[in-house]
Sequence to fold (389 residues):
Amino acid sequence: MKRVETGRYEMISAGGQTVRAFVPAPLPPVPPLAFEGRLQQALEGAGLAVGRLDGASALLPDTSLFLYAYVRKEALLSSQIEGTQSSFSQLLLFELDEAPGVPIDDVVEVSNYVAALDHGVARLREGFPLSNRLIREIHRVLLSRGRGSAKAPGEFRRSQNWIGGSRPGNAIFVPPPHTAVPDCMAALERFLHAEDDGLPILVRAGLAHVQFETIHPFFDGNGRVGRLLITFLLCHAGMLSEPLLYLSLYLKQHRAEYYALLDRVRREGDWEAWLEFFLQGIRVVAEGAVETAQHLSALFREDRERIARTGRRAGSTLRVHEALKARPILSLPAVCERTGLSFPAVSSAMDLLAELNVVRELTGKRRNRLFAYDQYLALLSEGTETEAS
Fold:
């Protein structure tokens, strides 16, 4: 539905130029959303897919294994949208302190994202409200190390920013003046907590994401926090028991349409077109997560059965296999620590796993060898390939 612009412009001076900064109107949209036709179908399809994902997570033999891997995949994808070039394997190597030749700033950013997500989920589980205070905490963790650490982590911006272009005068979009950010974010917080407007939680998440991106309250990290906000909303509302739904892969694959629809909301008030796109993304991503979980469960089961058929070496090898399920790249000493097995037993078990083509030795060294659970990594890495690779 075409409305009018979903906010107002303020003339500001920035970078020696006078430019128009956009201040969004508070949510929900006026006039109300038109739930009919394709938008209603998209809402129903997304809701069913999220329900199936939440149900599938309860059926996983060990949800924590899938969550560990899936959170890192999301961190990688979300950071790639911002321009990082690290790979899934590089992130895991970094976490092992075994990352020679890795672009360290890129991997630190991805690692920070994992920490920010973990922090947010932990706070919500403590009963802390989804609020501006929590959003600032998440941002502080996200920018705690690396390139963004000098850009006021955890603080709303105190000067003008812009999106695209080399200066405000040729920017694609100029967010609200910094003086308007506190009021805009207070209004967004009220919308997050509203219970009397009848909006489904998936719709509330889609509206809140656009509003956050439009306000752009931080100097850096807005895109990553805005994508995290979607998942936190679904967990906070009880629609997901585990943080297993992330839109970054979908947004990466449809980046041009995503940005065009955000602009269309601001200029024309066409929330319905955005929401149809957003809900379709929710459905696609939820269905993909269920499929990935099923493939991983099948892979683990098949490899376990193959190991069990190897005879007397199977016992220790199965324990090593369990360690690799928890962390798909490991050194031999790390496996010893995780399993309690001796070094010779672990070395023999890993050699057997290599013979079965379950693992691959990464380093080519006689000492300090690293092993990767190859098919596991391949499943997790789907869609994370960088443009440079």
